[in-house]
Amino acid sequence: VDNARNAVVAWDLKRYSIPLASSVFEVWANRCNGIDGHCDDAGALDSVVHSQNRFGYFAGRPNVAACPTGQIHAVWNRADDGGVSTIQAAVLEDGGWRRSGNIARDTLNKQEAVVACAGPDLALAVWINKENVGPYASNYGLHGNVFSPATGWGQSVRVGPVGSFSDGVRVAADRSGRAVVAWEQSGYVWANRYEPSTQQWGDTVLVSSGNQRAFYPAVDIDPQGTATIAWEEKVGAQYGVRARRFFADGGILEEPEVVASSAAVRGIRLGISADDTGATALIFLSRFEGFGLP
Question: ∠ CA(116), CA(229), CA(105), 5° rounding?
Fold first, then answer.
């Protein structure tokens, strides 16, 4: 939802042929205005045919962001040309959706792309990238790209280190263009910050600590540039939700705060939101008590 309360939604659509000789994977999107709630005609951003001769072809898992200028950005996965996964992007402007093509510039597999508007006109996309480095072929890392109206999407860069497993990438940005990304890697939660003054990502920071397995991170950032990162932890049969602040200067202060801890608490659907004063609300799933709001 943008500042004018216009809302955009994107989704996967799969069409089957009869008989089941092939199927079509599509990515669709639509926008509804904030005045009367009227929605445009939904349109397909991408369409890929999957069949026995085109095995592994796919389009889906879209993510969208609404910018203060009214631009809407969408990113999604597309696998074609032998099943190699790419990150596709499109921007919704006055004339409709404009495809940007593949914004990940290498030929390695990608997954789980997210996008956020940073300031009035920038957008940042981050995704998990399969890396052909290290002792194992299944190593993964975090890559990203930045969009500006003048130049479009730039060159993709590495945002986080290479690890044996990466998942749950989330990104948030404030009105000045600062952004923070959080993700799970090798059983820990990590974070990095994008600084618009240098137009670069900083150094990766370990957010979770100890021997607890940490996963399902969530992140939001307030207008002062302070980000709050929350995640789920598991110690034996005990689950818990912890949170930690990531300050505008790039440092993490304070120890991780225990938000909730019991065998019933799960952070699978962690939701987090920071307002203009810096107050932060966190909502999470509890298996027996329903939703909890500290």
Answer: 40
**Which residue's structure tokens are 């949170």?**
243
CA distances from 40 to 7, 61, 232, 277 (A): 11, 21, 38, 35
Kindly state the tokens that stand for 234. Answer: 């598991």
Closest CA to 129 of 107, 147, 146: 107
pTM score of the predicted model: 0.84
| CB environment 59-75: b (16+ within 10 A), e (fewer) | bbbbbbbbbeeebbbbb
Q: pLDDT higher for 105 or 262?
A: 105
pLDDT digits (tens, 9 = 90+) for 36-58: 778 888 888 998 887 655 656 78
Q: Are 59 and 81 in contact (CB under 8 A)?
A: no
SS3 (DSSP) at 179 = strand
β partners of residue 240: 233, 261
Q: Scanning the structure block, which residue is given the tokens 């909890």?
A: 292
Tell me if 231 sits within 8 A of 176, measured CB to CB: no
152-153/140-148 β-pairing: antiparallel
Q: φ and ψ at 52, to 5 degrees?
A: -60, -35
**156 — phi, psi (to 5°)?**
-70, 145
Three-state secondary-structure class, residue 209: coil
Residues 291, 294: Cα–Cα separation, whole Å: 10
What does the alpha-carbon distance between residue 117 and residue 119 come to, in Å, rounded to a whole number? 6
| Number of neighbouring beta carbons within 10 Å of residue 95 | 6
pLDDT tens readout for residues 85-99 = 889 999 987 778 889
